[in-house]
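Collaborator request, handled under Task 6.
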Amino acid sequence: MTAPPPALEIRNLAFRYPGGPEVLRDISLTLRRGEKVALVGPNGAGKSTLLLHLNGILRGEGSLRVEGMPLRDENLPAIRARVGLVFQDADDQLFSPTVFEDVAFGPLHMGLPEGEVRRRVREALAQVGMEGYERRLSHHLSAGEKKRIAIATVLSMSPSLLALDEPSAGLDPRARRNLIRLLQDLPLTMLVSTHDMALVAELFPRMVVMDAGRIVADDATAGLLADAAFLEAHGLEAPCLPAAPPRNR
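Structure tokens returned to the collaborator:
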């Protein structure tokens, strides 16, 4: 039997903004289905720019495939349905008066019938633990609630790949812990850009390190976090994890 294509395959991707320097340089990256991968690096490394390529918001030189489909104009609707991109600031994603309208936006624009739209909204809100919020005003929610609703807006499209930009930024400890549980439980391929190295250590077995527009490492998280000299050279720090509780004697 033929093996299924990777969830994401990028080859020799390069990109520069008009009139500016090259932001992405020779990026090659493959994610297998079901992998949860952290994308880390200092500010300006190109992480957010890379995420914006996954569903065609930005288009650089090189090749990008989602589940075997090349990123081309004719494939954009299908690719954007498969890649759920969650921005760092949830307010950039929540623009409708109510939670229901925000979460229903994608399915409605897919042309789905009303019954299917309502089913998808219910299921997406249940996945993020926000049942009963349909009539709430999006702009009145807490930062943690907004983050969950932003994730629900892409889950309602039934994506196969979830791409998140700094998901834990601005969250208090309780909301951050709830987010970690949510990401642990979601059965999706994930590429998550973050500066939260404790989140990386806890949630992502594989870590991709970017610096100055290039991938400088792609390996097991535990090994990379143990290399203090490498982390320092690329503007990163190993997380200060809580000590394990003493065992009963």
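The cover message to the collaborator said: "The longest helix spans residues 114-127. The beta strands are 8-16, 22-31, 36-40, 61-66, 69-70, 83-86, 161-165, 189-193, 206-211, 214-220. Please let us know whether this matches your experimental observations."
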